[in-house]
Structure formats: structure tokens, C-alpha cells
Write a structure and sequence with these properties.
binds zinc ion, 94 residues, mainly beta, DZANK-type domain-containing protein, three-stranded antiparallel β-sheet
């Protein structure tokens, strides 16, 4: 997939399959590596091959999977069918 306009590829194993998840940053006292992100949730991509974690302050992903069968929900990161109108997990419209 592309993240913020660039292809995401694992620098450790070279894999290009990632699991996307949200890291809530909005609560008081929540910080990561000493810095705080105002309002926006961080986005974590975990390499499915070697489990290396790539961290983004925010991420807009474009699915480039040629199978085109599923996409990651922009809000919660759940993999949903491309044919679904809304995310079955959080209701986010596509
Ligand atoms: Zn990897
Ligand atoms: Zn969702």
C-alpha cells in the first residue's frame, strides 16, 4: 500500500504487507518517545512478515493491492471489503 503518497515497504525484511492499527494519542498524559501529537491518532503499521513496526503521526493510505478485494478503514484500520459502503467495525463511510 501507499502511505502519504509513498509506497510502504519494510526496511528490515523488504516485505510490503502490513497490518494497520491506530494508536490513540488524544488522552491526557499519552505520549510516545517523549513527544505528544496534538489531537491526531498515530498510525502503526506492523510488518506481517517480520513484525517490524513503522509509526506515522498520521497516515493516508492508498491500497495498491491488485486483488482489490479489501481496503483498510481510514478510521479504525479494519480490513473491509472494497464493495462495502461503510466500515462494519466503526461505521466510517468510505
Ligand atoms: Zn518486515
Ligand atoms: Zn472502521
Amino acid at each position: 500500500m501507499n502511505v502519504n503518497g509513498f509506497p510502504l515497504r519494510c526496511p528490515h525484511c523488504g516485505g510490503d504487507s502490513f497490518k494497520r492499527s491506530r494508536l490513540p494519542m488524544g488522552g491526557p498524559g499519552l505520549s510516545l518517545f517523549g513527544f505528544e501529537l496534538m489531537g491526531e491518532d498515530a498510525v502503526v503499521f506492523t510488518c506481517r512478515t517480520c513484525n517490524r513496526i513503522e509509526l506515522f503521526g498520521s497516515a493516508h493510505t492508498t491500497e495498491v493491492d491488485l486483488r482489490g478485494k479489501s481496503i483498510d478503514c481510514d478510521r479504525c484500520g479494519t480490513l473491509i471489503p472494497a464493495t462495502a459502503g461503510v466500515c462494519p467495525n466503526c461505521g466510517q463511510p468510505k
